[in-house]
Design goal:
- With 485 residues, this protein is mainly alpha-helical.
- It is built from 26 helices and no strands.
- The protein starts with a helix and ends with a helix.
Amino acid sequence: MSELIEKWDGVTAGAAPDEADPVVLECARLLAAEPDGEQAVLLTFGLVSMARYVLGRRGTAVERAVVDALGAAAEAMDEQGRGCGHEAHPYTDSLEEWDTDVDGLLDATDVEIPFDEWDAAEACPRNAAGWARTAADVILPGSTDGIPEIIPEDHQRYIRSLDSVLNDYPNGDPFWDLDIHAGPPGDLSRAALAGYVVVAHANCWYAGSGRIRQRSLLDDMIEGLETVLPQLPDEACAHEDGEHPALRSGSAEQASEGIHLQSPGGRTVLREEHADGYGASLEAWTCTTFLRTLAVEARDHLRESVDRLFGTRETAHLDQVYLRPDGRLDIDSLSERHVPFKDETASEEAALWAARRYEQLGPDGPALDRTVLLLLMGTAADSLEMSYGIAREILGILRTAATTLPGGACDHADGHERTSDRLARIARLYVPDADPAPGPDSGQGFGSEVLTCPVHLAEVVTKGIAEIEGQFEEELEAEEERLAG
């Protein structure tokens, strides 16, 4: 056995198949021949130690031989170890602390340690049986049963955090809750690959909603999905209609299922659901055709979201909405769109149109139009939840406007308090005969002379700049660093 154990040590992830395959096959042959023999425990842990290599040999005779041998050994050694008297076996501790499939396999007992130095529970056939099932499940999900329904604590925490984020009541910063799942872990098992894609698909809708303003998250998610797409061939599969997971539940439930795919105990949950008549089989969950569809949909949605949230937005088509035939502003339509929470996309696009129109008119443009557009820009910056791409462009225009406006004092002793009917007053400023006229606001006269006060305009612009810079501090700093580099 010593010579064989030395050979096992050379079978690592990425080893040359012409050298590694014969070693793995010999170990599997010996174990399959005597799954309850004298050397069965050592042979089992030998295959477990080489499982990371076998993960890279999908669909080969090596994979099938190893899974079959481990399955036979698990059944035989479970029977052999019955009544062992051990309260627990080390493999269950590993299941509780499981991180990724590849790293989890490293917790198995090191076969290079002399067998007579092993702890009794480690050397117990039932512990070896547990590891046999675990390794077989990692290599080929669903190929064995009997793995305890143990969900690792970290995975439970992931499920809880994603549940809160995807149901839109995050307990902390949702960026970090999603960022930890943005890229795939290295050396993916079949189920870990499936879990990563399912979680990414569940997360992409929230990530692309605009609630998270850091573009880096979306870029990392896109890169991660593109990294795994080569492992998901664009081809048909043998599954019948309805065999793939339906994914009719909400994003939080999908994320939970994706996390379950990433641990042996979690896969037991999915396996038992399927056995009970609901939920897909593990074989269907790991189908590359099914996963490719999810990965492409998630990637494309994230790409569109990057363009929408951080790219340049077209607004030329809005001329016919916000300009009258005589070239004057359609102030009613324009001011109505600046009301927060009615239609966030339309509101931020109206604000961007106003900013571009202000810039297009230039210093020699109609003074009243430019004043009204500047007021609308400042109102938008102070009240709307704008995407970064739009906010960044409006910020640039506000900064330019700030250089042309005076500061200092004016004759308005009561200051320039913002009023609840500000938009109505802006509309009336542009069309004085508009009806109905705004009512009084807390006893403060806030007529056209206040709205058009240069000091007031400077305050509006300064506040708008501060609001955008405060909301997007990290993004603006990151962009400055990129430009400087």
